[in-house]
Amino acid sequence: MALMFDNRFAxxxxxxxxxxxxxxxxxxxxxxxxxxxATQFGLAGQPQQxxxxxxxxxxxxxxxPLAQKYAGHQFGVYNPFxxxxxxxxxxxxxxxxxxxxxxxLKGAGPTPxxxxxxxxxxxxxxxxxxxxxxxxxxxxxxxxxxxCLVAGELPVQRERxxxxxxxxxxxxxxxxFGHFEHCFHKGLVEELKGLKQYVVERHWPDLADQxxxxxxxxxxxxxxxxxxxxxxxxFAHGVMNTDNFSILGDTFDFGPYGFLDDYQPGLICNHSDxxxxxxxxxxxxxxxxxxxxxxxxxxxxxxxxxxxxxxxQFQPALAGHYLKLMGKRLGLExxxxxxxxxxxxxxxxxxxxxxxxxxxxRWLSQAQKGDSLIPCRDHYVDRARFDAWGQxxxxxxxxxxxxxxxxxxxxxxxxxxxxxxxxxxxxAIAASEQGDHSELRHLYQLLQNPFTQQPGMDxxxxxxxxxxxxxxxSCSS
Length: 477
Known about the structure:
Layout: E1 4-5, H1 8-12, E2 17-19, E3 29-33, H2 35-40, H3 47-54, E4 66-68, E5 72-74, E6 77-79, E7 87-94, E8 100-106, E9 121-122, H4 123-139, E10 145-157, E11 161-171, H5 177-185, H6 189-203, H7 212-232, E12 235-236, E13 258-259, H8 283-297, H9 304-311, H10 314-329, H11 340-353, H12 357-363, H13 383-398, H14 404-412, H15 422-433, H16 438-447
Antiparallel strand pairs: 1-7, 2-4, 3-10, 5-6, 7-8, 8-11, 9-11, 10-11, 12-13
Helix pairs in contact: 4-15, 4-16, 5-6, 5-8, 7-8, 7-9, 7-10, 8-9, 11-13, 15-16
Protein name: Protein nucleotidyltransferase YdiU
Cofactor: Mg(2+); Mn(2+)
Binding site for Mg(2+): 244, 253
């Protein structure tokens, strides 16, 4: 069955892209295929046919490849020269539920927006993006998806010579904050209106006849929800430039990201981020900063008072989403403001002790109403402090009608046992670079079911070794 393309962006916005064919691999090799997503898209074909399509060797029927033009603030500085420097929007498809998706080929060769780059992606970074997007999806975090990963024979020069690869990203939309910024700064008011209308008609039809201010309010709330998930699940993005922010509030563009191992609120996962602008605990404030940039870009369409009013909704929306998520992780049926102190005290204790964030939350499901102590106390150095907190926690659990077993099952269903730790990704990458892709495929399978204990997988649920906690990741890709 062929993909069902409806390439509206190509039709409606000729001034916002450059048409271009991929510079394909001569001998593409399909390394990973997201089979459930391929089925959802009605995509069928032999592995070599898929490799040829998504390795740029053969034309994908119905596709209209193009490089999008946008701008953005990078580390706080406006850059008007951005765009898809090495990626191509292949087109827009409908899945078997009638939902629209963009397909985007990353690493397809230089475009007019490459700014001197080679337009390629390497196997290392492509593996990291594939695994991260799928890991987040299976945790329930709003995110773009990865359809497939294709490797080529092409050597690519980075800090060292690496193998080239292409990643096919599936996203509900590739419209970024930076698209609106480009239109605003270039005075392209009609394109600005058109982009807003395009997003509404494609994704939020309930806003079709509503005032434009509700569009921005929707973006504010979707962004707040995304950031709440990041903070609740310990995800550090690493490069929160406005061109890396999706208008729909989906996690977008995976570079030097990281998942928390030890709970370090100030974690800087990008070793190029010398000031800590994009540190883990700075993510909420940076998201609001980015929304302010978007508000400026939308000012020709929306009154300033309405923009300010929408921005003021960000913090309470974020706090509400975060409290709900953390309440679930702690087994609280209806978390309220009275639970904020309980959550904050736990996080402060985890930070002071250097406890593993994911495991510490997973262990709490062992608590039982009526007990005086929680079994996981043995993992803590300052047991008196943990016991004092535990008494408050047990008291809170006793106020619920939920049985211990029902609560345990609910908690284990939202607290992952398997997390995409940097060292696990690095092990898979190192093996793949030597031609052995078994660990990569194994890790991908594991991350599709992160909450359920799987036989023989105990090593993947352990704290990382010391060397695995200090891996440095850069924007090099």
